[in-house]
Design goal:
Helices cover 26% and strands 37% of the residues. By secondary structure, the chain is an alpha/beta fold. The protein has 2 domains: 321 residues, no CATH class; 53 residues, no CATH class. The strands form 2 sheets. Strands 1, 4, 5, 7, 8, 10, 12, 14, 16, 18 and 20 form an 11-stranded mixed beta sheet that branches. It has a 10-stranded mixed beta sheet with strand order 3-2-6-9-11-13-15-17-19-21. Helix 2 packs antiparallel against helix 3 and helix 10 crosses helix 11. The termini are far apart.
């Protein structure tokens, strides 16, 4: 556990990022020697890599000029049991926090605020099966052999880019889930990452490892109130799905309007593995998400769903990759977005089939619904096929709400806002219905109504 002096040192250090900042984070988290060395190597890599440029394809439509890295400071991370987790969740805008933590059927819960862990629970029956679910720093100290094997070595690598290297140097908070071979856990593991400090930079990391034949359901939630000072969130999600394992992963991003959010997710699927994922993007002023499924084994299945709704001056940028490396793999991607006000979204997706990945079946769909004249959506689907016996298709649309449809509903007694909400919910309904969790369906319905403005 960090000392008071170490936490004070981290909180009062000069803004911006530096080698001294990396060392302060390492002391606050109580790193092992191996993890401290890894941080310093990542920092050296960060310093050597250039910032992304508009000439880079992935960043061509992304403007970083408003990001002020030199004004940010890493959030202090340490166990802080004196904070009421329910109050922290309510302060961050989480609805029905008590139901989600105290009353909901959960296998385990982790709540972190500004990278400080304020609650960790794990069902004793689940723990007895050899399941590990804890915050990442604790996992690094108590299970170093697992962390050194999987942490940023197989799915997300620091060398992927400038922001991935920064994350590898400053990671704090986050969660680690390990499910042993043949173990099935039906109730969800939940992790909440919250921001309360203005101008803070948080680096939450999710690492999920399912051994052969294991099954689990993981839900990540990112929440904060809107503040006047720019904040920064860097999340990395690594999903290691072993042979014949099944993982359902849900992520809800609802940061405040002061947050610049960068998220990198990579799932690695072994033979006969199944991934069902859902990404919900609602918050942040700026959000850039990089999401990929690596279908490395035969007979793998990756279902990748996404819902985003931008309003005001929000900017959402999603890049997805469906990477088929072995034969008989199936990937099914459907991302849908709605925009209003002056919001803008960018979607770019790539289906890539390697030469030996015969009998691949891949589908990619991106649909956008524009609710105002000043909103804009860009959609860029891509295919890169090196095998000759595959079925790969994609589709993309950008359209506005038809005034005739609104008039039809208003003529039958619905106010315009409710009519628009009905149309938008119907637009998202095919994805909502594909998530067989009633609680998540209800959350999405309420979030859509809130965004529409009813």
């Amino acid at each position: 556990m960090s000392t008071v002096a170490e936490i004070s040192d981290l909180r009062t250090q000069q803004t911006g990022f530096s080698r001294e900042g990396v060392e302060a984070v390492s002391r606050a988290v109580v790193d092992t020697g191996a993890s401290q060395d890894a941080r310093l190597r990542a920092w050296e890599l960060y310093e050597s890599l250039p910032m992304p440029r508009r000439t880079d394809e992935e960043w061509r439509r992304t403007d970083l000029r408003g990001l002020k890295l030199d004004r940010l400071r890493p959030a202090a991370g340490a166990e802080d049991p004196g904070i009421d987790p329910l109050q922290a969740l309510e302060d961050a805008g989480v609805e029905d926090a008590a139901a989600q933590i105290a009353l909901g059927p959960n296998a385990g819960v982790i709540v972190q605020r500004d990278a400080s862990t304020i609650l960790t629970t794990l069902d004793p029956d689940v723990s007895a099966k050899g399941v590990i679910f804890t915050d990442l720093a604790t996992a690094y100290r108590e299970h170093p052999e697992l962390l050194e094997r999987y942490f940023m070595t197989q799915a997300v690598l620091p060398s992927m880019g400038k922001f991935q290297a920064l994350h590898a140097a400053f990671w704090q908070g986050g969660s680690f889930l390990y499910v042993p071979e043949g173990v099935t856990v039906e109730t969800p593991f939940r992790a909440f990452s919250l921001i309360s400090q203005p101008g803070a930079a948080v680096f939450s990391h999710t690492l999920v490892v399912l051994e052969e034949g294991a099954q689990a359901f993981v839900a990540d939630a990112f929440r904060s109130p809107s503040q006047d000072v720019q904040s920064f969130a860097s999340a990395v999600v690594e999903l290691i799905v072993g042979q014949d394992a099944k993982l359902r992963y849900v992520q809800v991003q609802d940061w405040g309007r002061d947050v610049w959010n960068f998220m990198t997710e990579r799932a690695v699927l072994a033979q006969d593995a199944t991934l069902n994922s859902l990404h919900v993007t609602l918050g942040a002023k700026f959000s850039k998400s990089s999401i990929a499924a690596h279908l490395r084994g035969k007979n793998t299945l990756a279902e990748m769903l996404g819902i985003y709704f931008a309003d005001g001056d929000q900017f959402f940028d999603h890049h997805t990759w469906q990477l088929h490396e072995s034969p008989f793999g199936t990937s099914d991607l459907e991302f849908k977005g709605a925009l209003k006000g002056n919001a803008r979204s960018v979607y770019s997706g790539l289906i890539k089939v390697e030469e030996g990945a015969q009998k691949t079946d891949a589908y990619q769909q991106n649909r956008n619904l524009v609710l105002s004249r000043t909103a804009r959506a860009d959609s860029i689907p891509n295919l890169e096929i090196a095998a000759n016996d595959v079925r790969c298709t994609h589709g993309a649309t950008v359209s506005q709400v038809e005034e005739e449809h609104l008039f039809y509903l208003q003529a039958r007694g619905l106010p315009r806002s409710e009519a628009q909400n009905l149309i938008v919910e119907g637009f998202f309904r095919p994805i909502i219905d594909r998530v067989p969790v009633e609680e998540i369906q209800g959350f999405l319905e309420n979030a859509i109504a809130r965004k529409v403005g009813i």
